[in-house]
Write a structure and sequence with these properties.
This protein has four helices and no strands. It is mainly α.
């Protein structure tokens, strides 16, 4: 097993572990922002702020999806390039 493969497996394992921890933490957290700060939700700028946050979140998701697809394409492209080079030799 190559060092790169070991690094990828370790990163995947760590990502799974941390995502499980994050999910657990979120489930154990009871956060009611409107109860904690009612003057925030009633402020005139609140709808614009929420709209900006939602747009930024959607953009972040799109960037993450694009990054994931590029990584997958890079791996598939590398494998295909190796096959082509092997076929040429």
């Amino acid at each position: 097993m190559s060092m790169l493969e070991r690094a990828r497996r370790t990163a995947d394992k760590t990502d799974r572990y941390l995502s499980e921890k994050e999910a657990s933490l979120l489930l154990d957290t009871d956060l009611d922002v409107s109860r904690l700060s009612p003057e925030i939700t009633e402020h005139e700028a609140y709808p614009a702020l929420m709209s900006a946050i939602q747009a930024a979140s959607a953009d972040n998701r799109n960037v993450a999806l694009l990054t994931s697809r590029i990584e997958a394409l890079k791996e598939e492209g590398g494998e295909l390039l190796k096959k082509v080079l092997d076929a040429i030799r």
